[in-house]
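Entry 14: structure prediction run for Phytocyanin domain-containing protein. Input pasted below.
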Amino acid sequence: MASNQLVILAIAAFLLPTIAMATDYVVGDDSGWTTNFDYKGWAKGKVFHVGDKLVFKYPVGKHNVFKVNQTAFTDCIIPPANEALTTGNDEIVLAGTGGKWYICGFATHCATGGQKLAISVVESAPEPAPSSAVRGIIFAGYEVLVAAIIAVVAVAV
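Run finished. Output tokens:
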């Protein structure tokens, strides 16, 4: 029983950095989700990974968010209203790789206001090299923890 718990703990410790490395992107940064904003320019240069999160911030009742396919994105085809995200602080975790498309379904916000976002999502990022002394200490401590857990598991089995 104890060895099963240690194996689960070791697996969790191995996966934790991948989860912790996810990035939250506020779509449009300080401008948020709005009309007449260059979302193509905003996304340019960003690398979106599986596990990252998009956060759409906007005034409730003024905008919404629809996840759509490429055709609906290109032609600004609005899905049924019950598919809209409408909280004004909508969070979408990027769960798979490939193209992802989002539009606003209010009036002509997509078609004439340019309120649409297309991104490409890639596999989860590998563990980055430490970029500062503090980050290096944190990762070194993590590596020691994982090594200790693996050693305990090996002894228990």
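Notes: The chain has two domains: 1-18+129-157, 22-126. Will compare against the previous run tomorrow.
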